[in-house]
Amino acid sequence: MSAPKPIGYWFKHIDNTLEANFAALLATEGLLRRHWQIVHTLSGGPLDAAGLDVALAPFLNAQEPTAAPYVGALLDRGWSRRPTPEPTC
Question: What is the pLDDT of residues 33-80, one digit of tens each?
């Protein structure tokens, strides 16, 4: 009989399962986790491209330095829109 697995193993197992199911669900709509991160971030209020990159900085890296490639798909779906400039007096 094998020894029981430590609690950390089960937390990681649950996390991996949630991530895989979430990715599969998004894939049915032709989306990736990055799309969801953008929609979630923008739900807090409008951001321009630079602001979005700052907000998503923890998820970006040298291979993916900006969220810009994903924004187009969200704009095409009508799930986001470009911020309108503030009127000047």
Answer: 999 999 999 999 999 999 999 999 999 999 999 999 999 899 999 988
Q: Residue 65: which residues within 8 A CB-CB, separation 6 or more?
A: 53
Distance CA 11, CA 16 (A): 9
Residue 53 near residue 66, CB atoms below 8 Å: yes
Where do we find the tokens 């998820």? 59
pTM for the whole thing?
A: 0.74
DSSP string computed for 37-61: HHHHHHTTS---HHHHHHHTGGG--
Nearest to 74 by CA among 38, 20, 46: 38
Q: HSE-up of 44 (CA within 13 Å, CB side)?
A: 10
* C-alpha closest to that of 83 among 56, 37, 52: 52
